[in-house]
Amino acid sequence: MAYSSSTRDFVALSDLHPNLARPNVIGVVIGKTDVRGFPDRKNIGSERYTFSFTIRDSPTYFINVNSWGREEYIRSLSESFRVGDCVTIENPLVQSKDGEKEEKFNPITPSCYKLLISENHSVVKTSSCYEMDTKLLSLLHLPVKDPQDYYSLGDITANGQSLDGRILNVLAAVMSVGEPKYFITSDKRKGQRCEVKLYDETEMSFPIICWDNESIQLAQSWIPRETVIFASDVRVNFDKFRNCMTATVISKTIITTNPVETIVDVYTVKQLKEKALQSDGKPEPVFGIIYGYISMLDIDDNVSKVIRNRCSVCRFVVNEMSNTCTFCGDISSDSKSTFVSFDILVDLTDHTGTLYSCYLSDCVAEETLGCTVQEFLTLAEDKRTALKWQLLLERSKIYFKITLSPNWRSGLKANILSCKLANPIEASQSLLGKKLQHVAW
């Protein structure tokens, strides 16, 4: 299998082997480590620098990429992309990996190989996933492990010290994201730390700690009480000082944000409303899937209605008048900035009813619309209207999160986690199943 663009062909990661001459590959970055320096054995007194990342080009295949070289080259390359970016790699060296040694410190991959990037022979380019293949974007929401293979936070807490030092998977929602703390280590190296509090239906506050810049930057994009993460291969330890269990992001860890693969329950709109209202006022959200369509999408009239400024620290929508964030008020305004983001209200409809004023925001809106905020802002009104009618009334598979909200119009606040055109056979089978359930009732 190969992918193609207007300029070159890309080899699928699953087709790579050491005898392949000058391969070109493409993938979305799903994991990345910080730059590190090591003593150069060939040049005493100098250092070689390295960092690694993991790319994915299909639901079942991903591979680790290592880069070694001069400090200037390695730092420049590392700073050129982040987790979530799409990269193309020209002429990497394909090497067999030492499974046990490689997987001790790197993410476990299905590939027998790893890629090595050379400053003299390889070229890494960053490009918009929208330009290359929009399917790559959906891979960001697919866990790299079995989505049902995880510990609840309550299980980790209950098992306590018996799990000390274990590496396992966690599925939880984000309660809060702490401010990064910076320090100098005893050997004069710069360090950083950020603590995130997670919660699920079994535990209301569980700390996960990030020590590297890459995971800290990723954590800063999470929205408290909205973002859900699937963290594969985190290390859990018993913290004697705090007398509690904690999790730590390590070099093996890959974090999947809003992992829709872990959501399997299918609802009609009517069933969803009934389910949410049966929660007896509890704050726990309801996650599920609806096969329906967007029945209201107002994106072509007034752009200011669908674009908002968000705080770069906590990602909450900022006050429109003052353009300041009122949520993370304890952080000085000098260290905060804002960025533009989609914030669209849509109606979702199926054969049983309509769910009004659902949030389609941030990167999920970009995936659904197939364009970035910057690209959207350049569209003329007729182009925005055409884009709207590409999505309206098209049967879709919609992943959502619902929470009770008395101040909301319907009493329910709905956030769309993913919205893609539905497979006709899958959608019809789901509809038939729901009708049979209705008859049985």
UniProtKB/TrEMBL annotation:
InterPro entries: MEIOB, NA-bd_OB-fold, OB_MEIOB_N. Transmembrane segments: none annotated. Residues 8-145 form the MEIOB-like N-terminal domain. One of its GO terms (biological process) is meiotic cell cycle. Coiled coil: none annotated. This is Meiosis specific with OB-fold. Keywords: DNA-binding, Meiosis. Belongs to the MEIOB family. One of its GO terms (molecular function) is DNA binding. It holds the Pfam family OB_MEIOB_N. PANTHER family: CELL DIVISION CONTROL PROTEIN 24 OB DOMAIN-CONTAINING PROTEIN-RELATED (PTHR21166).
